[in-house]
Specification:
This protein is an alpha/beta fold. Helices cover about 30% and strands about 15% of the residues. The protein is built from twelve helices and twelve strands. It has a twelve-stranded mixed β-sheet with strand order 7-8-9-6-5-4-3-2-1-10-11-12. The chain binds S-adenosylmethionine and iron/sulfur cluster.
Length: about 325
């Protein structure tokens, strides 16, 4: 069954946030002064509840699920949950977004549980700078996590780099150069105005994708092969002689709403129709009130119909204080 929204887009991808907690505190995602407390145990959906919703989503037309957070690897029992999802009939792909801190010790069991793709966030290769961005001295753990993910067969490991002007933009060339040595996909992402970032004002920190691209040596000779030009929202290419690929994700400069295929489920049981819209559909209340599978499937249909045509973030110059922080949405 296909899930089609009111603008004719096929919705087949669900991102499930299993927690808003995290073992890092990236300044653009979870500023310490946001004043929003974390969810408590009772507010967060149990794995059984998440599984019932995933089952309903697949029945509605979802075929790809990504587990995210907060940091999904910090929630106890997440490998067992992946195992449950890994054998869900009709689900073709089970992906994971992680900060990689615990990846080295979990990569093997995640692969065995049926996870087939991983994205790891890595904004810098400098230990002190990593600590400045994330509030924690964990760069070595993340690098070990990426290596281990590669070693157990997650091919390619995708590395997400949020570029922050004046903080890590001087490392763009070095991060892109990782693709000479490794088969990784290094994707540069424009900073989005979710929260008042710790490092300064959004307008000063935001670097448009055009400026990011100009920092990459030999980009003019990069190869954009057939089928490679896009990969979800990322535009991909290969630097001459590289083993991996580089990609660009520009939610601000090149919005990709026309091909958006996704819904999001927050850890507290709300379907979000767009990363940037405030519209949320409460699925936890009906679920806990005993809704049938059919009724849950209907909620996914409703969510698809409520998807806006596009976001208007490029007109936004500062964070919206009513917006949930990224860690509480599930990036
Ligand atoms: N903890 C995991 C991680 O860091 O990959 C998964 C959740 S995190 C919210 C998902 C992605 O959102 C990360 O790649 C992170 O860099 C990105 N992100 C968070 N806040 C952002 C912002 N303000 N602008 C752009 N990307 C952001
Ligand atoms: Fe945690 Fe990921 Fe947000 Fe960083 S980006 S604070 S690792 S949830």
């Amino acid at each position: 069954m296909a899930l089609i929204d009111s603008f004719g887009r096929r919705i087949d991808y669900l991102r499930i946030s299993i927690t808003d907690h995290c073992n890092l505190k990236c300044g653009y995602c979870m500023p310490v002064f946001s004043g929003r407390p974390h969810l408590n145990h009772v507010e967060i959906l149990t794995y059984e509840e998440l599984y019932r919703l995933a089952e309903a989503a697949v029945c509605a037309g979802i075929s790809k699920i990504r587990i995210t957070g907060g940091e999904p690897l910090v929630r106890k029992g997440m490998v067992e949950f992946c195992n449950m999802l890994g054998s869900l009939p009709g689900l073709n792909s089970l992906a994971l977004s992680t900060n990689g801190v615990q990846m080295a010790k979990m990569a093997d069991s995640l692969k065995a549980a049926g996870v087939n793709r991983v994205n790891v966030s890595l904004d810098t290769l400098q230990r002190k700078r990593f600590e400045k961005i994330t509030g924690c001295d964990k760069l070595e753990d993340v690098l070990a996590g990426i290596q281990e993910a590669d070693a157990v067969g997650f091919h390619p490991v995708k590395i997400n780099v949020v570029v922050i002007r004046g903080v890590n933009d001087d490392e763009i060339a070095q991060l892109a150069a990782l693709t000479y040595q490794h088969e990784w996909h290094v994707r540069f992402i424009e900073l989005m105005p979710f929260q008042q970032a710790l490092f300064g004002d959004y307008q000063d920190l935001y670097m448009p994708i055009g400026a990011i691209i100009k920092r990459i040596p030999h980009i003019k000779e990069a190869h954009v092969g057939p089928g490679l030009a896009t990969n979800g929202p990322a535009r991909m290419c290969t630097l001459p002689g590289a083993n991996g690929k580089i990609g660009f994700i520009a939610p601000m400069s090149w919005h990709f709403c026309g091909s958006c295929n996704r819904l999001r489920l927050t850890a507290d049981g709300k379907i979000r129709t767009c990363l940037f819209a405030e519209t949320e559909i409460d699925v936890k209340t009906p679920l806990r009130a005993g809704a049938s599978k059919r009724e849950l499937v209907e909620l996914f249909y409703d969510a698809a119909q409520a998807k806006p045509r596009r976001h208007h973030l490029s007109r936004v110059l500062r964070p919206n204080p009513r917006q949930r922080a990224m860690h509480a949405i599930g990036g």
